[in-house]
Amino acid sequence: MAKKLLTKFFIVSIVMMLGLAMLSFNSGTAPTLGVTEGKLAPCPESPNCVSTQADSQPHRMEAVSWPDDRGEALAKIKEVVSDNFARAKLVDQSPSYLRYEFRSLIFRFVDDVEFYIDQNASLIHFRSASRVGHSDLGANKSRMQKIVAALQNRMSQK
């Protein structure tokens, strides 16, 4: 009886791992992202996204106030990401925008993280979203909370 249960558990585990691996392979292409008329892409209805420009409360986080110029803001964001996230890769940038791909350790799932510097409002807007799946177990929100705290800490050290 125990041998049968162990065999079933093993088969179910293999099937689940294969399913997760297939999801990982399907997360290769980035969705259309960037800034359009001062706005980042909206979050999907799934709970695996946070944004400072989201309309719905579960997805919404507050933008970071940044009184300095956007060049300094971009430099600080780059420092914070490189100091804290080894699996982050900068894939797009402009004078007021950064986009990173963050990969999970085991299955290499991709989360797209964007930063937009609104120089007129002195704000750093951001969006962090998983490419695939429904839930991220709070990973995007947790990551952005860590980045915001680090940015605010660096700003207070001036």
| Structural shape | elongated
Q: What's the name of the CATH homologous superfamily?
A: Kinase associated domain 1, KA1
SS-based structural class?
A: alpha+beta
- The CATH architecture can be given as 2-Layer Sandwich
Count of DSSP E strands? 8
- Strand residue content: 25-35%
Mean pLDDT: 86
- SSE series: HEEEEHEEEEH
Our measurement of the CA-to-CA distance between the termini, rounded to an integer number of angstroms, reads 66 Å
Radius of gyration (CA) equals: 18 Å
What is the number of domains? 1
Q: What is CATH's topology name?
A: TATA-Binding Protein
Work out the helicity level.
25-40%
CATH class: Alpha Beta
Poorly predicted runs are 19-27
Structure overview:
- This protein has a single domain (40-156), classed as TATA-Binding Protein (2-Layer Sandwich).
- The protein has helices at residues 2-25, 70-84, 139-156; strands at residues 35-36, 39-40, 49-51, 64-65, 88-94, 97-103, 110-118, 123-130.
- Residues 19-27 have low confidence and may be disordered.
- With 158 residues, it is of the alpha+beta class.
- Strand 1 (35-36) and strand 2 (39-40) form a beta hairpin.
- The protein is built from 3 helices and 8 strands.
Give a topology summary:
Elements lengths: L1 H24 L9 E2 L2 E2 L8 E3 L12 E2 L4 H15 L3 E7 L2 E7 L6 E9 L4 E8 L8 H18 L2
Antiparallel strand pairs: 1-2, 3-8, 4-8, 5-6, 6-7, 7-8
Helix pairs in contact: 2-3
